[in-house]
């Protein structure tokens, strides 16, 4: 019995620091993008670095009432870098959507018509765009899914294809962050 108590005490001792920190929201994208502070990291962020990233977004939750995890990742990327001293203007972020992710950026009216509720992603899309994020929709995906361009929310730009847009952005120095 004493060994069991010692083991439980050891587990509790080591578990407390893990539970002590809570993820923080913001600061750049308020109310979204929770991240943990990593103060004891071994790799510092480079001073003056320009972070160019393209998020390839093809998935969408079966639960249409949920926020897109991939869009939340975009907010996390921005928030954690801003929190650690990277100016917002030192990040160029693009989101290329295709496949099932066409739902992510549908207008409230188009979303309501299909799912009988407002699109849970549009507020985050608006905030990300205000932070400089560019959105590109695969033209092939909207054609295959029967979505009209007018059913896409501002600020989405339609490209020939996701493959084309990903190639263009990577040729321009954007790092690919796949779905």
Short structural description:
This protein has 179 residues and is α/β, with parallel strands linked by helices. The chain is built from 6 helices and 5 strands, in the order H-E-H-E-H-H-E-H-E-H-E.
Q: Kindly estimate the percentage of residues that lie in beta strands according to DSSP.
A: 5-15%
Low-confidence stretches: 4-20
Mean pLDDT, as a whole number?
90
Principal-axes geometry comes out as globular
Helix content class? 25-40%
**If strands are numbered along the chain, what order do they take across the biggest sheet?**
4-3-2-1-5
Distance between the termini: 49 Å
Total E-strand runs: 5
List SSEs in N-to-C order: HEHEHHEHEHE
Total helical segments: 6
Instruction: Give Rg in angstroms.
Output: 20 Å
Largest sheet: 5 strands, parallel
Secondary-structure-based class equals alpha/beta
Q: Can you characterise this structure?
A:
The protein is an alpha/beta fold and 179 residues long. It is 38% helix and 15% strand. It contains 6 helices and 5 strands, in the order αβαβααβαβαβ. It has helices at residues 2-20, 69-83, 108-115, 122-130, 139-145, 162-171, and strands at residues 51-57, 91-97, 134-138, 156-159, 175-177. Strands 4-3-2-1-5 form a 5-stranded parallel beta sheet, with helices on both faces. The longest helix has 19 residues, at 2-20.
Properties at a glance:
179 residues, alpha/beta, five-stranded parallel β-sheet, 5 strands
């Amino acid at each position: 019995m004493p060994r069991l108590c010692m083991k439980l005490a050891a587990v509790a001792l080591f578990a407390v620091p893990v539970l002590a920190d809570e993820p923080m929201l913001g600061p750049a994208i308020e109310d979204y993008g929770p991240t943990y502070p990593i103060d004891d990291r071994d790799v510092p962020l480079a001073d003056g670095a320009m972070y160019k990233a393209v998020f390839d977004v093809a998935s969408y939750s079966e639960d249409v009432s949920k926020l897109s995890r991939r869009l939340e990742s975009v907010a996390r990327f921005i928030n954690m870098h801003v929190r650690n001293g990277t100016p917002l203007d030192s990040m160029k972020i693009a989101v290329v959507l295709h496949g099932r992710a066409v739902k992510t950026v549908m207008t409230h009216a188009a979303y309501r018509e299909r799912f009988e509720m407002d699109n849970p992603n549009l507020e985050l899309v608006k905030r990300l765009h205000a932070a400089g994020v560019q959105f590109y929709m695969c033209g092939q995906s909207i054609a295959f899914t029967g979505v009209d361009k007018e059913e896409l929310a501002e600020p989405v730009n339609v490209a020939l294809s996701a493959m084309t847009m990903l190639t263009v952005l990577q040729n321009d120095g954007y790092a690919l962050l796949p779905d």
